Amino acid sequence: MRIRAMRVPALRARLRTALLQAVFLAALGVVCGVAFNAFRYGGLAWVGDRPPADAASARMKESRTIRIDEAWKKYQQGQALFVDARGPSEYLSAHLPGAVNVPVERAEKSIEQLKRAADSGRELVVYCSGSGCSLSSELASVLLDKGIRNVSILPEGWSGWLDAGFPIEEGDAE
Predict the structure, then answer these.
(1) Is residue 157 over pLDDT 90?
(2) For residues 154 and 160, is the Cβ–Cβ distance under 8 A?
(3) Coil, strand, or helix at residue 174?
(4) Comparing 30-34, 151-155, 162-166, which segment has the lowest mean pLDDT?
(5) Whole-model pTM?
């Protein structure tokens, strides 16, 4: 019996140590996740700060979609400005011809430039990575909220543009 009595405290100590390590690792994971989200491009919102669905859908009805060939034709005629809603690194690697980079979180800084372009009669054609990307819709909503009405969304985005074989630019177009 004496041998068994010695094993139980040792087992309890090991279990306590393992449990403390598991709690520590879980806490470390939460801290790392919070830090990553805080510094990540387009991090997730902690609280539902989105407008009500009916307000968002009403604003989206004000914008329209545009086909790739129609957007290219308007660009060639000087009637369109491409607005890239992707992050700066994606924009710098390659983008649509003459595009300006306006990530959603920095839209406020570019509003005046975009208003001038829209007031000059050019259509703002907003795009992001592709059909599964919502950044173009989010940016279009911001522009509509700021009173810019000449906004279109290129639903196929960057990937559709590449697939269609239209020209691209690399580096900074500005």
Answers:
(1) yes
(2) yes
(3) coil
(4) 30-34
(5) 0.65
